[in-house]
Amino acid sequence: EDIDFNLIKDSQILHIAGSYLMPQFDGEPTAKVLQKAKEYGITTSLDTAWNSTVKNWQEMIEPCLPHLDIILPAIEEARMFTGKSKEVDIADHLLGYGIKIVGLKMGGKGCYIKSRKEEIYLPAYPVKVIDTSGAGDAFVAGFLTGMIKGWPLKRIGQFANATGALCVQHIGCTAGVKTLEETLAFMKKIN
User: Fold this and answer.
1) pLDDT at 51
2) Which end of the chain is more exposed for a tag (fewer CB within 10 A), N or C?
3) What is the CATH number of the domain that holds 26?
4) In this protein, which residues make up the domain named Carbohydrate kinase PfkB (predicted)?
């Protein structure tokens, strides 16, 4: 009841970050917000965040899953809340809830993306890692940018990986975040 949906009803994507870090909002309250966004035709996305105090990850996230279009967790978190270990098994489990795209962030190993039509593994860009703070959030920002741009899933994953790779080359969460043009130039240079 604290959310004014008039503020977001014309949005393309509603992304919820930091799931598991907001005790008053996690679980059913998050699910209700996602459900309402879907009623407005908004694409819904969620990224989890590690919280060692959470006892039952699955119980907390399960109400949200049927209302998601995209889920972008770190592989370790996805293993915790699905009980699966292999990327394909995690993705298939989550797709079973009606989620359209599962993107697993795998740090220095890159990412694994699966939809009903595609399965893509993209290695990480070879860069000198200085600080991984914010890399997952940068990846998500890159991923959602690609979705808004309407790019093919492989290009979205490449752009998300590039956004994360640029982030880890600097100290702090935002110092390595670049413009769209700079990120595309980085991709062209590396490829």
Assistant:
1) 62
2) N
3) 3.40.1190.20
4) 5-178
